[in-house]
Amino acid sequence: MDAPEEELDIKLQKISGDLIADFDRSLVLFLRKPDRGGAGGLLVVRPRVRSRETERLVSSLLDPFQEVPQLLDPHLPKWLPILADAFLEYTQTKTKTHRRRGLDTEDVFSQTKSVSTRSELLMPLPAAISRILYTLCKIRGEKVIVHFLSNETKYLELFLSALEDSERNTGNKWTWEERYVVLLWLSHLMLAPFDLATISSSSSSTAAIDGEDDGLPRIRGFEWPTTRNTSLPGITTRVLPCAIKYLASPGKERDAAKALLVRLSMRRDMQELGVLDALVNWALGQLRPSVAKQENENETETERTPYHYIGVLSFLSGILVSSSDTSDMDRYLSKLFYTVHSSASASADDESSNIMFSSALARKTGIKVIRAIAVLTLRNNSAVNDDMTSSMELVETTIGFFLENLADNDTPVRFAASKALSIITLKLDADMASQVVEAVIESLSRNVLWIKDPTAVAGRRKDLSAVNPLEWHGLMLTLSHLLYRRSPPASNLPDIVHALIMGLSFERRSASGTSVGTNVRDAACFGIWALARRYSTAELLAVRLYKTSSSPSVLQILATELVIAASLDPAGNIRRGSSAALQELVGRHPDTVEKGIWLVQAVDYHSVALRSRALREVALGATKLADQYGEAILDALLGWRGVGDVDAAARRAAGLSFGKITAELANSHKDPVQRLARSVSLVLGRLRALQVRQVEERHGLVLSLAAVLDSLPGVVEARKGGGGAFGGFVQTSIAALVEILADCQTKTYRRPELIAEAVSRLIISAFPVLQAASFDDAVQEKEEQEPWNIKLVPGPVLVTDRDNAGIISSLVDALYSTTTPVPDSVKKVVHLAHANLSSWLVRSEDEVLAAASDAALVTLVFSGKTECESIVREWVTKIRQRPSGVARGGSTAAASGYFSALTKTYQVVRTLALPDEKLIAEAINERWRNDKVVDTHVAILQSLTQTDTLKYNVGEFIGLIEQGLDDYYTNARGDVGSLVRLQAIRATRWLWEECSLEGWPTVVSRLFLKILRLSAEKLDRVRVEGQATLAVVLKPEHATKLRKDTFSSRAYFCFLLDLLSHDWLDNALITPLKANPEKWMEELLVGLVSSADTGNEELVIATRAALCDFCETSPSNVDAVCAALVRNLKSQQTQDRVLVPTLEVVAFLFHVGIFTRCRTVDYKKLCLQVQKAAYKTGNVRKIEACVRVYGAIAGLLLDEDKSSSGQSGKTEGIKEARRRLGALMLHPWPRVRSLVVDELWGLSMSVSGETPTSFVADAPAEQLKGVDWGKAEKGAVKTLVASLRLD
């Protein structure tokens, strides 16, 4: 629902300085290197550069500036000459070098290419420079970038030769970026003020053209100019084939080739030689496929692609635009128009035209061509009045063609058609321009229906379901462009404003449910912005949308509509566009909008980025400025932008916004309760008008009604409103609640979970209404008095307040201590609510269960004591029933809601002193024991968290939490037991925070070591909860330090390891928790080894580094860690999830030389524990870890002092390890034997010298080579074992 919290443009502006500085530092060294053969520290261009560095410069440093390209402007004058000079120097240097060696240019680039492509890690320098230049063109625009390139004409033939050679030599194919940059650079060089004949070399010039094209390249459909006694410059004859070839390219080369052709053909010397005429005739021939086919009988039409026609059309558009101030193209206008128009308007049976205009880009380019022709025609008519009829016929045909294309399926075509129509309208006289505007407005009125709507002010409303949303987008864009150019006369403004207001609230959805109305609203924002910018205040104030004199001005109406769109629209760009348009409206027309300056500050461009914030804060801020904004927003919230939104989260936010705005309006009303009643009546009217299938709207409306009831206590507490109005509001609300609950019981809805959630929220919000109705006599006595003085409690406060025990107790005591019976209306609500909750509490949706369990609390508060006991017993019976046929790791929702309902209503049961108080705890424990389904355990622990049930029944539930902390059940879904551990950790945190001081040390002692273990385990989501729970039992300063450390950092694991040796725990816990330091270290390492072995790479590195740091601190730490690991090997023999990581960590500590420093470990016993771990196991990874440990022990060197303490035990351990390696060489699995061989080879390479137990790095070790020991015969293996002394 929301856009990203941190806006990308703001983030980019913050880091832009670093990105630019990095690019600035890297550029020169990227392009150049020191000249080893030269002197003076000169830098020469590199022939090749790293592909990875190119990618970094482009993707990481330049691409982020696409949103804010202007930040690069100060640096382009420095960077672009550096890039251009390096490109030129590379090209010139290579050409000169190989010319001196007598090689062709083709060979130059062939050799360069063969060298540069030896490794994919390197790329040629021109390719890298071209990619950077293209990226800059993409960011800033090619027209800006090309101005910084060299315009010396001496480079014309250099680039042409390079381009031609790249085409002739298949081994030197350029990248498309290189072709694009060279073609673009050539188009820039075509601006040279000299005739091309004067700058063409003699070797490149062609023979005189005397009617034949001998010696000239053949171009399909193109006829070279036939001017006699005149030579075409060699540059021209070389440029034309290349440019025409790439004009049909599907890539960006087409744009550069088009620019090159336009520049070449529009040169005066080329026009005199007939190049322009030849190119125009060629283009016309290409757009008439039948003619082209007759000229090229041996070529088929199927070879042409839409890109070919796009290139031809873009060329025609380019020369027409370039000749806008001249008469160079006047003689071709009529012929071009009818050729392009006939092809674009051809029927679907015309295969050639279908190929030509099958692409949206081709249709868009065709529109640009026709637009340019029409503009030139209108310009000529303003100067010369002859042939006026045919010219106006052309213009009228053009306008009709554009109006048809406003409904095109592709957005770029609609954009082009709307812009073209506005440009042409600007050139027309006032009468004809007004007709165009009227035609657009009339099109907007087509298929707009009026339907009866009792909720509307006039009793009817417009229905836009029959209109074409694509056509509306094009029409709205046209209106906006017309306004931007101030084309419509002031007399058309009322109809235009009406259309813009309709467009601002337009919405349609496709068959798949996606929105297709966003474009229309976006265009309407642009239109309102243009209207405010182009028309004066007097002109706009003169516009009257309504006939009544008391109606607000059009500026106020537009401002209100923009506030609605900025606050409620589901699309972020519409909210921001509306905010920008509002700022323009208020700024251009001061003192015409109520609270205009403050309104702009409230509806800020950045504030509306998040939809939740716009609904929650922006809408409320506008309401506080003036009631008219709040009333308008309320009305819009009841439409598709609020309660009718397809997103459930948006409907929830809209409902809350409806309640807050209603409360704000009530606070400024003379009778606040009456204002609340009006909103309730409005919502109820909409609810009753809904059909059964309109579930989403019903969901939003019920949530809105709930939000209005939430505001009732605030109004009463402010002592506003008389008792009579209050009593009527209470009775109306009770009646509405009964009606809705009865409706839920009798009707079946398409999405029952939405109705269940919304009505449950309504029951919660109705708590103050039920509370007031329960004191009906007091209300009647106070009926005519000023305020009602009973303290009402909002429903959400009751169910979410952490300290609600006192509130519930006082309310229950007050309700059951009075002699006045509970009114029948309240009893009816309780009865209906209980009946509906029976079906809602067994659903699986989290939103429904959370709301329904809270509603159960409200229901139980207003039930009689007898009925309360009956309901509780019914729920207890429900949770005792275990569903059959559900596996341990399966999913079931049976009775999961009843767990939360019972625990949340525990305080009511306790206050009433019902005998079921202990029954609740017994039933939950019984279900835990009998039902091993993971989802059931999760639901039970979740229900205990943040409820009084756990606090008052610690003894009954602490064992249950202990079991949850040890749940490591896994199935095909993975470690599903982590879901139970996660909830158990949260329950532990709640218990530690809420437990009384007397029993705190005992409670903490039972669970602490388990929390310590989970704080170090591999799963991030478990570890982060363990970190937060562990901080509860630390001293404040150390708890703060622990929370600051990232839960995957090296510092965090160091903190956990150091916790035993420091007094960081709470003073009351130091003695009981540190009573058994060995057990402490064992539990901590059980969790830590999983992070050190099976976690992600960064976690493994951080954990092992922290373990090494801890061991390096003191020898006692080494002894503690190693001894604990050995004890875990013995105690966790049946738990592979602990045993395998422990073996891996032991092998790692041997590898880094830490385990060998342990003074308490018996290596022989360690080998025996490892042997037990590998005994008859099918876990290859466990066997691999055992091999590593055996190898580490077998590779130990004996001390020089043979009589040193522990030397004999070490010797026995080494011998045992070698025997175990020898035994594993006979393992039936080839993979295991290969693992042993790898370990033996590593030992032979790492051990030198000859000792009684060491390997000899000579001939015996060489026996490991040249044999596949996984497939070797058993006899050969035994021989190897004997020769290596492993038996």
UniProtKB/TrEMBL annotation:
BP GO terms, sorted: microtubule cytoskeleton organization; post-chaperonin tubulin folding pathway; tubulin complex assembly
Domain annotation Tubulin-folding cofactor D ARM repeats: ranges: 381-597
Residue stretches making up the Tubulin-folding cofactor D C-terminal domain: 1006-1182
InterPro entries attached to this UniProt entry: ARM-like, ARM-type_fold, ARM_TBCD_2nd, TBCD, TBCD_C
GO molecular function term, any single one: GTPase activator activity
Domain of life: Eukaryota
Record keywords, A-Z: Chaperone
Signal sequence residues: none
Record Pfam families: ARM_TBCD, ARM_TBCD_2nd, TFCD_C
This protein's name: Tubulin folding cofactor D C terminal-domain-containing protein
Species for this entry: Apodospora peruviana
